[in-house]
Amino acid sequence: MVDLLLELFRQNMYFVTLWTALLLINGYFAMEPVIIVHGGAGDIPQSRVKGKFDGVKVAVIAGHKVLLQGGSALDAVEAAVVSMEEDENFNAGYGSVLNLRGEVAMEASIMRGEDLNSGAVTLVKEFRNPISIAHKVLTDSPHSFLGGEGAKLFALEKGFSTVPPESLISENAKNALEEFLQHGEFGRTEIGVKNEGGVGTVGAVAIDKHGHIAVATSTGGMSGKAVGRIGDTPLIGSGTYADDNVGGVSTTGHGESILKYCLAHSIIKLMENGSDANTATKEAVTGMTNRLNNTAGAITLSKNGDVGIYFSSTRMSWAYIKENKLFYGIEHNEVIADDYAP
Ligand code: GLY
């Protein structure tokens, strides 16, 4: 009997020791979760700077909380983007810019770097958070990209509630369309050169403690766009890309140029060939602008959590949390750092 008890003790101690060692190893090798967001690139007027700063900070904290609670990178980027879709300061969800008919027609995409699975929606008119529908496409649909009526049917099937389309229209968006109709030209950014009412596409890139990367991007497109126009944001490789072996990218700016240049994937390719996140982001955005004469911006995380930020437009709001600091900026070469205690 004593022998049996001693044996049980030895076995239990063995398992306890092994279990403790595994926990320590897991903790030691767990990555620091990192999340970066952008609130759009363009000719953002001074009057909109504070709203952008406030919004990107709230969004990055929302995503970071998910990561700290052990949530996945995919859930974190969705939370960050939902926060900006709810905020009128951004061109996504409520506050989206309007097409030529005065309607909101939103687009979003999300991608998981672990298995390259993705979900995207376009021409969404009656739902408040297109990014959540895109996430559902990723997890629950045999397809990757649903548009218009099909996206609506899928969302209803999955339990999303519709909202009146007018409830997504902000005063700023109406003013921006009126302004567009007066000058009638698309600017060099998604919001138009003269467009004081313009706001920006939103995006988030995160890496969780397991080293998994996810990216989400959401937009209302460009003011005065044709009915049925689809831009870069829902296109995997243009607006969004994530690959655990390399990194993740979300882009913003002139949609037709970004999609021709496959901007997000161009940055990934440069990193795959040895460039660091910052160099790759700058090189690809500059390359697109030189080739196509339109502007854009991008945020990038490498698989090691290194950050890349670059924009060829006048301004781009961004924020990220890393090593207990919240960094943010909107002007070229501007980096503001606040202590951040979750
Ligand atoms: N980048 C947003 C758009 O042009 O649709």
UniProtKB/TrEMBL annotation:
InterPro entries from the UniProt entry: ASRGL1_meta, Ntn_hydrolases_N, Peptidase_T2
Pfam families on file: Asparaginase_2
Transmembrane parts of this sequence: 12-31
Top-level lineage group: Eukaryota
Catalytic activity: L-asparagine + H2O = L-aspartate + NH4(+); Cleavage of a beta-linked Asp residue from the N-terminus of a polypeptide
Alphabetical keyword list: Autocatalytic cleavage, Hydrolase, Membrane, Protease, Transmembrane, Transmembrane helix
Coiled coil: none
Family the UniProt entry places it in: Belongs to the Ntn-hydrolase family.
Name listed for the protein in its UniProt record: Probable isoaspartyl peptidase/L-asparaginase GA20639 isoform X1
Organism field: Bicyclus anynana (Squinting bush brown butterfly)
